[in-house]
Amino acid sequence: MKIKRPVETGQVIVYEITGIAHNGVGVGKYQGFTVFTPYTVPGERIKAEIIQVKKNYAVAKMLDVENGHSQRVNPSCPIFKECGGCQLQHISYETQLALKRQQVVDNLERIGGFKNVLVHPVLGMKEPWRYRNKVQVPIGIQNGRTVAGFYRAGSHEIIEMDQCLIQPEESDQAVRLVKQLADQLGITPYDEKKHQGILRHVMVRTGIHTQEMMIVLVTNGESLPNKKEFIQRLHNSFPQMRSLIQNINTKRTNVILGEKNKLLWGEPVIYDHIGSVRYAISPHSFFQINPVQTEVLYEQVRKYAALTGEEVIIDAYCGIGTIALYLAEGASQVYGVEIVPEAIRDAKVNAEINGYTHVHFEVGAAEKVMPRWLEEGVYPDVVIVDPPRKGCQPELLDAITGMKPKRLIYVSCNPATLARDVKYLQEQGYYLQEVQPVDMFPQTMHVESVALLTLR
Ligand SMILES: C[S@@+](CC[C@H](N)C(=O)[O-])C[C@H]1O[C@@H](n2cnc3c(N)ncnc32)[C@H](O)[C@@H]1O
């Protein structure tokens, strides 16, 4: 049976945008039917042309805004609409923060069934630009020319980019210089379709507080023509560089880094600090990409942990041990668990650099290691979880409720899985006190939250 929908392709409609989907696209109802229109702002009444009709929704292209909207701003980046990196540059920063808070509230209500939870206003940045400490730019070839930029949203076509407004200017300069030197010295750009050519990606990491910079050239093989001259000229023109690394990736893959690193010049790691804790960062290290907001996030965790110096704490999904070490000074014993062995190696180095001997880091799946710790009699006062987007496994949540910590702090990059897991925890005797969202990724739809749960 053919279902009658109120719109068809090519039709021009006028309707109101009432919300924003998780991918940043504006959404509203037209005669009860859901229509998504990119680059719109909730509250706007728009004229739009339907370009795609699906079973339960349609997608439209905006033609005009019928009611002027004060929260619409001119995107600062000239390639905002082509590049897949940012979704919200057309919306004032104040409104971006309000939308992110709403996203957390909606998920807690819809998925978790939580009504009237205290969700604070999002902690945003004073200057919500140029915040990234890690930049990864694909290099490619277009019409015989070397190009460096970002992929068009949903594709592998490189959109040429001179600068990116959410990464530091020095990183943009470094990428431009590498591209220029590669062209001059015969280091050919990688052709993804033919799997030929040398230079695949340039990665730049910066220590925002230390000003140290690492440049990583990701190459399709060991060969790097005119290597000596390349290193010399890069070093001469870029005194900020502390570390130059060649990473070899010969696989046909979307994964940027290969396994092997070769130090071309300088040190194998750079350093940065969050608060007073110093961290060593290598090409493969997971390190939060917005260091200013990382401190805001970790301070919130510290506040919720309310440590007196006597507590035993667990940092589950600890990465390179950043939260564990940030809190270590206020705890009597610290445990950290993480699935990536290299991250735990970094965590142990970071514990040593900071002189902490009361921390224990273990490699493994948190959902396996935590039940074992419980069996071994580890009873923490505070547990912090910071899982990936898919959230926590039930085995891990059961281990936590078995350990009965007084405080449980859930750091989440996905409000949907946060709501699901907190609902489960609430059924097991934990009470959701409050949630503090933090904006780690201005201009994008991502939102990070810190939730405090206490044992009833
Ligand atoms: C969102 S990151 C948090 C890292 C760290 N807390 C930080 O702030 O830098 C999530 C971490 O969980 C790790 N991970 C993913 N699945 C895991 C699992 N089943 N058990 C333990 N760690 C896991 C990832 O490798 C990643 O380092």
Describe the structure.
It comes from Thermoflavimicrobium daqui. One of its GO terms (molecular function) is rRNA (uridine-C5-)-methyltransferase activity. The protein is of the alpha/beta class. The protein has three domains: 12-65, Nucleic acid-binding proteins (OB fold (Dihydrolipoamide Acetyltransferase, E2P), Beta Barrel), CATH 2.40.50; 110-124 and 290-455, Rossmann fold (3-Layer(aba) Sandwich), CATH 3.40.50.150; 134-274, Beta Barrel (OB fold (Dihydrolipoamide Acetyltransferase, E2P)), CATH 2.40.50.1070. 25% of the residues lie in helices and 30% in strands. The chain is built from nine helices and 23 strands. Strands 7-22-23-21-20-17-18-19 form an eight-stranded mixed β-sheet, with helices on both faces. Strand 3 and strand 4 (33-37) form a beta hairpin. The protein is flat and about 65 Å long. The relative contact order is 0.10. The model has no long low-confidence stretch (mean pLDDT 94). S-adenosylmethionine (SAM) is lined by residues 286, 288, 317-319, 322-323, 337-340, 343, 365-367, 386-388, 413.
